[in-house]
Design a protein that fits this description.
The protein is α/β, with parallel strands linked by helices.
Length: 316
């Protein structure tokens, strides 16, 4: 029997439980007391040890700890092998900063071996901090015998798995659109791209797409990614948005009908259709734009337009 105190100290209670687990080796016994022939494998993507654990790691750890505990209570032997991801840009960026490197060619001039040695010396810099946080969080994992993706036996096992998949005909070669870092000269993962995301002012392009059933009528489309235009296959319109059809003389003096948002037209008319500008030889002065029709986007749904480039239409 133990007297319950009226004022509970949760930090002290936490430390008492953790100390009990450590002293009695409760985690180790949760594995050794289960039969070796009743395994439950839990695959856990290893984190980088190039920084301290953040909120995302803690949330994921809660889930990753719950599943093995459940199957342990069901009588399974769950060997929760911890690992460290030692590859990728995070550690390379740290090594480059340490060595004062700003370009890939400097790595080649210095020597790849020296660069790799610096990476190895930095890759496990925060292991102690990770162990401390995971212990405080109460997550059970074998961090003392953790594998590292830079271990030769680990890399050999990856190649073995790849060969097995190849022999089974499960590997194929294809193409995939990837983000490329011009400085590092390598592909980037989605998370690496997101880490460097920031809002900046940039140039934009307004392209005009001619409607197939209305020659001389163009839908204006705004984009900040003009490099996607050669592969464009659709335009987005809002069926309840109000649009206007504007008659306007282009730089060659030809009359065109342009379809655009009514709000944009009324707000940016002078910027979109400048009446005062320097004329080149043979150019006719522009005339004021005239909104000749108003309608909702529902009228545009299902319409066909001519692509800006005919790369794909030639193949049909």
């Amino acid at each position: 029997m133990k007297k319950v105190e009226s004022q509970v100290s949760f930090p002290r209670m936490e430390e008492e439980i953790l100390t009990f687990w450590d002293a009695k080796k409760i985690f180790e016994k949760s594995i050794s007391n289960r039969p070796a022939d009743k395994l439950y494998s839990f695959y856990d993507g290893p984190p980088f040890a190039t920084g301290t654990p953040h909120y995302g790691h803690i949330v994921a750890s809660a889930i990753k700890d719950t599943v093995p505990r459940y199957f342990t209570m069901k009588g399974y032997r769950v060997e929760r092998k911890w690992g460290w991801d030692c590859h990728g840009l995070p550690i390379e960026n740290i090594a480059e900063k340490e060595l004062g490197i700003t370009h890939k060619k400097e790595i080649l001039e210095m020597g790849v071996e020296k660069f790799n040695d610096t990476c190895r010396s930095k890759v496990l810099e925060y292991v102690a901090e990770w162990k401390k946080v995971m212990r405080r969080f109460g997550r059970w994992a074998d961090m003392e015998n953790a594998y590292k993706t830079m271990d030769l036996d680990y890399m050999e096992s990856v190649w073995w798995v790849f060969k097995e998949l190849w022999d089974k005909g499960l590997i194929y070669e294809s193409y995939r659109t990837m983000h490329i870092c011009p400085r590092c000269e390598t592909t980037l993962s989605q998370s690496e791209v997101a880490e460097g995301y920031k809002d900046v002012k940039d140039l934009s392009v307004t392209a005009k797409f001619e409607l197939v059933d209305e020659p001389g009528t163009f839908v204006l489309a705004w984009t900040t990614t003009p490099w996607t235009l050669p592969g464009n296959v659709a335009l987005a319109v809002g069926k309840d948005i109000e649009y206007v059809k504007v008659r306007y003389n282009n730089a060659r003096g030809e009359s065109e009908l342009l379809v655009l948002s009514k709000v944009i037209y009324e707000r940016d008319k002078e910027k979109l259709f400048p009446l005062v500008r320097e004329l080149k030889n043979g150019e006719l002065p522009p005339i004021p734009p005239e909104a000749v029709e108003e309608f909702t986007g529902e009228k545009l749904i299902g319409k066909s337009y001519k692509p800006l480039f005919d790369y794909y239409t030639k193949d049909e």
